[in-house]
């Protein structure tokens, strides 16, 4: 589409906007009818550890939303010389799971408790036993039940419980809605009804009946919508929040809000059965679209859905790139201290590529990038840790490979359950996230860890905000009865190139040696949690 046609498309509102609130960045992406990016904006932020809970405050949520939108809007004006008054469709996505509880006035009752908190173990275990369905610690229902077990006073005042994406959608539309993928990280979904599992809802109500709360579970959860459905319209109040200049017009239709897992599946065209994707960031998760039910309940495997309701086996590790980024930042700091001009991308690229020169197993080194607790390995808290023996081959190449390997260590343990215990077939996995902006190395490490061909698309850097924009576009531009997977195949990814990397046998064997070391060394990590205090300044 040439500049003149694009300008007309923007004026006519033949566009779709996706905004995703990720763990370290909020990003807004505006696309045309062909799902090509027109403009984008972003805002960097970080979670806070407040009163023992990982959280983001409401002011930062609103500021970040506005800044990301404003950056996108300014890029439109700079590129095309026109103000942005309308958009064809909008969608919001965010980190899945967590807990946002409100009273009837809309007041947030306790600070937002994110997916990163490993504080709901008792509730998660009790509900898993009650439902005979795995309820991970991150899930909203686990947070709610733990608050009940803790006898927290706010529970009796609850009028609404939602996720971050659901909160933003409610704020801007007034509609208490949620996409089925994000909903499946709140409470189990019935595949046949595309709604919360009715018998489990009744079980939960019976479980807490003696407490005498005025609410029933179904009444305080958002309504579930599937991809392609309209879930509200932008209100005048919503305009003032999103675009304080009020250039944007109200009435724009919104698609169901989704979680970052769902937008990752869309952004990598991984919604068909036997396909999967891996999303790498502060946390890491792999999503495999299942052909059949699993034979038993596994605490390491979340059962969630695609944005259109297909069952998915999800392996989610709380920790991935944070410690790796911290080490890369240290090397960047050293480079600057040497009086050199710092090019962050170049430094990161050079360091990451050192891993390609390493011993296959990382030379006997060991690392845990646990900034927070890790559910898959049973750690309630985290201590970033690097360990070596006198006999280890301690050099830069092995150091970098070890930190890349450990970023996928917990994920590997969960994925082995699917592929080895349940014989889940995976034709290929598509990878996305900032790590894959450096060619080859991240892809090669993931292929070694999972022993599955791994592809990275040419647009892998577009990420979840782009995937959310696609879902918004799907709502407006799909043909009658056109399934999401067909829309993606024929209208989004038809001409997109992907580079596939098959596992290297030496790397696979090296990772297996590393993961043995990783499992044996978990006692070291546990000892660090028990003996290395958090408030060391005291």
TrEMBL record:
InterPro entries: ATPase_NBD (IPR043129), FGGY_C (IPR018485), FGGY_Carb_Kinase (IPR050406), FGGY_N (IPR018484). Pfam families: FGGY_C, FGGY_N. Its EC number is 2.7.1.-. Keywords: Kinase, Transferase. One of its GO terms (molecular function) is kinase activity. It comes from the Bacteria. Residues 17-237 form the Carbohydrate kinase FGGY N-terminal domain. Residues 277-475 form the Carbohydrate kinase FGGY C-terminal domain. Belongs to the FGGY kinase family. This is FGGY-family carbohydrate kinase. It comes from Paenibacillus lacisoli.
């Amino acid at each position: 589409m040439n500049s003149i046609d694009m300008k007309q498309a923007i004026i006519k509102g033949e566009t779709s906007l996706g905004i995703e609130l990720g763990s370290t960045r909020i990003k807004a992406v505006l696309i045309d009818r062909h799902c090509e990016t027109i403009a984008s904006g972003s805002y960097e932020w970080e979670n806070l550890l407040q009163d023992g809970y990982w959280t983001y405050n409401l002011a930062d949520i609103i500021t970040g939303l506005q800044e990301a939108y404003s950056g996108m809007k300014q890029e439109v004006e700079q590129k095309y010389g026109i103000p942005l008054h309308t958009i064809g469709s909008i969608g919001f996505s965010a980190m899945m799971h967590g807990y946002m509880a409100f009273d009837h006035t809309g007041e947030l009752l306790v600070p937002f408790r994110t997916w990163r908190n490993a504080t709901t173990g008792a509730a998660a275990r009790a509900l898993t036993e009650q439902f005979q369905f795995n309820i991970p610690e991150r899930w909203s229902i686990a947070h709610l039940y733990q608050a009940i077990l803790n006898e927290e006073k706010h529970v009796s005042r609850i009028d609404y419980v939602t996720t971050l994406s659901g909160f933003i959608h409610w704020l801007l539309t007034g509609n208490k809605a949620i996409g089925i993928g994000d909903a499946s990280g709140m409470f189990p979904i019935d595949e046949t009804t595309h709604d919360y599992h009715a018998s489990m809802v009744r079980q939960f109500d019976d479980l807490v009946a003696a407490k005498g709360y005025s609410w029933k579970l179904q009444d305080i959860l958002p309504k579930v919508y599937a991809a392609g459905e309209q879930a509200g319209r932008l209100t005048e109040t919503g305009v003032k929040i999103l675009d304080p200049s009020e250039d944007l017009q109200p009435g724009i239709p919104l698609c169901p809000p989704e979680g970052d897992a769902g937008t990752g599946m869309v952004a990598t065209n991984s919604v068909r059965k036997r396909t999967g994707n891996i999303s790498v960031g502060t946390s890491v998760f792999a999503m495999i679209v299942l052909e059949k039910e699993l034979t038993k309940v596994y605490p390491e495997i979340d059962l969630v859905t695609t944005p259109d309701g297909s069952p998915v086996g999800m392996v989610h590790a709380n920790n991935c790139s944070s410690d790796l980024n911290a080490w890369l930042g240290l090397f960047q700091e050293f480079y600057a201290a040497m009086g050199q001009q710092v090019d962050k991308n170049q430094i990161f690229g050079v360091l990451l590529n050192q891993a390609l020169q390493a011993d296959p197993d990382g030379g006997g080194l060991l690392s845990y990038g646990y900034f927070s607790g890790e559910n898959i390995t049973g750690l309630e808290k985290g201590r970033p840790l690097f360990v070596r023996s006198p006999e280890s081959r301690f050099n830069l190449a092995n150091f970098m490979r070890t930190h890349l390997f450990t970023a996928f260590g917990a994920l590997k343990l969960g994925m082995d359950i699917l592929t080895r215990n349940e014989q889940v077939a995976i034709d290929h996995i598509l990878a996305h996230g900032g790590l894959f902006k450096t060619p080859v190395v991240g892809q090669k490490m993931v292929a070694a860890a999972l022993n599955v061909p791994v592809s990275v698309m040419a647009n892998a850097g577009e990420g979840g905000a782009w995937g959310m924009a696609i879902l918004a576009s799907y709502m407006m531009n799909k043909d009658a009865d056109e399934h999401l997977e067909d829309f993606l195949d024929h209208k989004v990814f038809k001409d997109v190139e992907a580079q596939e990397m098959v596992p290297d046998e030496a790397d696979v064997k090296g990772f297996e040696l590393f993961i043995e070391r990783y499992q044996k060394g978990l006692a070291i990590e546990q000892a660090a949690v028990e003996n290395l205090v958090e408030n060391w300044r005291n």
